Amino acid sequence: MGDLKRYGLALDLVDDKESIATYEAYHKNVWPEVIESIKSSGIHHMEIYRAGNRLFMIMEVDDSFSFQRKKEADSKNPKVQEWEALMGEYQRAIPVAKPGDKWVVMDKIFDL
């Protein structure tokens, strides 16, 4: 295994305190099937931060990871699809998202 690659992604939530609190509560107890799908895709570390209704995710992945393979695997996993549908009630794509995308991969502009 080579060095891990890091991605930053952005997403908005419905701008409502109760919805945001519910979303955060779900993320304190993510379903085991969802955790397994994350780990088995080559993601070694994942964090999500929030400022207001804007989310920022950091993922560290190995060479086996690809966004396309993750998407294909998730589409065949009923529990992940159930989770995504549930989370979709709280999520809103940021303005620069392409149609159908929720999380948007961000461009790294600084590295120290």
UniProtKB/TrEMBL annotation:
Domain of life per record: Bacteria
Keyword set includes Oxidoreductase: no
What InterPro entries does the database record attribute to this sequence?
A: Carb_Metab_Mutarotase, Dimeric_a/b-barrel, Rham/fucose_mutarotase
A molecular function annotated in GO for this UniProt entry is: L-rhamnose mutarotase activity
Keyword annotations for this protein? Isomerase
> Kind of enzyme, top EC level?
isomerase
EC number(s): the record gives: 5.1.3.32
In its keyword annotation, does this UniProt entry include Phosphoprotein? no
What PANTHER family does the record tag this protein with?
UPF0734 PROTEIN DDB_G0273871/DDB_G0273177, UPF0734 PROTEIN DDB_G0273871_DDB_G0273177
- Record-given protein name: L-rhamnose mutarotase
